[in-house]
Write a structure and sequence with these properties.
Layout: H1 4-14, H2 20-34, H3 47-58, H4 63-71, H5 74-77, H6 82-89, H7 91-105, H8 113-127, H9 130-145, H10 153-173, H11 177-191, H12 193-209, H13 213-227, E1 232-238, H14 241-251, E2 262-268, H15 271-284, E3 293-294, E4 307-312, E5 318-325, H16 326-334, H17 338-345, H18 351-354, H19 363-374, H20 378-384, E6 393-397, E7 403-407, H21 412-419, H22 421-425, E8 427-432, E9 435-437, E10 449-453, H23 470-502, H24 509-513, H25 524-533, H26 538-545, E11 558-559, E12 565-567, E13 585-588, E14 600-605, E15 609-614, E16 630-635, E17 644-653, H27 658-668, E18 672-681, E19 685-694, H28 697-708, E20 713-718
Parallel strand pairs: 2-5, 13-15
Antiparallel strand pairs: 1-2, 3-4, 4-5, 6-7, 8-9, 8-10, 11-13, 12-16, 14-15, 14-16, 17-19, 17-20, 18-19
Helix pairs in contact: 2-4, 3-4, 3-9, 4-7, 4-9, 6-7, 7-9, 8-10, 9-10, 9-11, 10-11, 11-12, 12-14, 23-25, 23-26
Bound molecules: manganese (II) ion.
Length: 721
Amino acid sequence: MLRQFELLERIKAYDPKADEDFVNRAYVYAMKMHGSQKRESGDPYFSHPLEVAGILTNYKLDAASIVTALLHDIVEDTRATLEEIREIFGEETARLVDGVTKLTRIQVQNVETKQAENFRKFVLAMSEDIRVLMVKLADRLHNMRTLNYIADSDKRRSIAMETMEIYAPLAERIGMQEIKTELEDLSFAELHAEARESILTRLRFLELHGGDLVVKIMDELDQVISKANIKGYVSGREKTAYSIWRKMQIKDVSFAQLSDIMAFRIMVNSIEDCYSILGVVHRSYPTVPGRFKDYISTPKRNGYRSIHTSVIGPQKHKIEIQIRTHEMHEISELGVAAHWRYKSTDNSLGSDVLNPMEGRQYLWLQELLDILEHAPTPQEFLEHTKLEMFQDQVFCFTPKGDLIALPRGAGPVDFAYAVHTEVGNTCVGAKVNGRIVPLRTQLQNGDQVEVVTSSAQKPSPEWEGFIVTGKARAHIRRRFRSDARMEYIKLGQEILEKTFTKEGYLLSDKGLRGVMGKFGVETIEDLYEKVGEGRLVGREVLVAVYPGVRSAGTENVIDLSQARLKQSHNNDSAIAIRGLTHGMAVHISTCCCPLPGDRIIGITADGRGVDIHTIDCETLDAYTDEPERWVDLTWDAEVDKDIHIGRLNVVVANEPGSLGEFSVIVARNHGNISNLKILNRSREFFEMKIDIEVRGVKHLTNIIAALRATPAINSVERARG
Ligand code: MN
């Protein structure tokens, strides 16, 4: 067991200014609080936090982290409270201890691989301060080192599994390579003891037969680089049993086939030397194709930099060689922890250690360092780190313990839809951590959420005000749409009944069934819906069912003379108009909403007169094979005293006031919004279809120009079919 003075000596060795009294008080307090508690090994419980603190001194962490390590199990396992810790050790320590305590309370059961990433994110999000995670990793490392003392094999297995799936990858993510490797190996020993043992046996066998192969190869590599006159340091090792096993799994090869079980590292002083060494190695040995990776020019996400290559090396052995500078090596092994070294030792390590931080490649680490030094709150720290802290997400649990990841700001309704659509549709209330809460409550990390459902419930339009997930929104919309469909069907049926009755005809399913094909619908309900929505005029249906009825003079269809269109007989460039006789009905199509002043084209429609489109309407594409239906038309005047509808597709920033601004501009330009439909609403934008009453195309063009000049309005286009 590490003794008090030894712990202090270790800290003093890298941080001579560390607050000795602070550490001593924590030591004594933790020892007193854990008292006579014992670990499963029979050791005094206090040996555990002490070892955890010891592990962290290898990473040269600050006094607050060491004190946190000493106190990390105190809230959970003794009568001490967080308030007491705050009083004695201050706010920072209390916050860190609280963070580790919260992580300890996360019970991960049966980690499924698909859930593992969520749990990793959850742990990161809960950590809030990177030091919390480091203490937790050291805690896990010591627990894994003493795992064999736990008698219950199921428990051992589940701890090992959790370590493998959650904590080892987290250690890697923050760049703590050594901890990652040891966590993996210890978990491997528990989960696949036999596989590990046979790989180790095989390695020992190879060692015996090859003499000390690693040393021999290191010597030869040493000679090769000194001949090239480059100063470099060669190290070599056998790969870990776990990494060999993984490779065997992935590549599906046997141990005998697996030749590269040794890895070598050449460390040099500068990046130029890295590439020079690479050249020397590639000139001296045949390379193994497909194994070259340059993480110096393209660092990994966690900041890792190195050149990897594989060669048929000395004595015909296939080996992997990593080439990197000393600084890259240090950061690779210690990860985030390396910055405490830079931070606490000033220049004691020499300027060659500090200089590489200037490079663009260290930006990630440099930023982290800056933030840790300057950020006033952990919140801000998180907002700026590139640590994938998932500050924009919250992680909540179902009563069964399943983890649900949601965007920040999500509430019980989002949660309900994430669990299951039916749960969302029938949600009436929710309990968070056992207490009933309003549905607009925002969920917090770690909340356990129980959704209360009732089959009588329907999604409420009010929910749209506070839900944040696309899934919930889509389902609520869909429900509204199907509600709306019912309304349209009812309305369409009423319209048809009135139209038919007025003309003295009978509305019958049989009659309607006969014309469904003509209107491109598959059910009578669809036909009603089309009429209800106004996409089909009641009288058109009547005429179709009873062809003897006169077709003119219906609502929604305007007479040619009213539209002040003239046939372009006198226009030289115009083609002759066929099939259009004076008095025939003209229909202003709603796909492009042509306005006086627009260049227009007519398309004759059987028994319905002529549909008018703008010349660039996309709908016209459908008629390219039927030139006989095209009619060339022009407007009589560019401005009409009648009101026409101009239709726009508009994208507006989703910000308070931007819609208001939109309508003010339209009004200021003497337009009137007659209809507005939101097609899409994202976090950033509204996408809308808007009908504006205008006098002609010039009028609409003016409005468009004014809208385009407004910052809140992203884009404005006329509808083009
Ligand atoms: Mn612990």
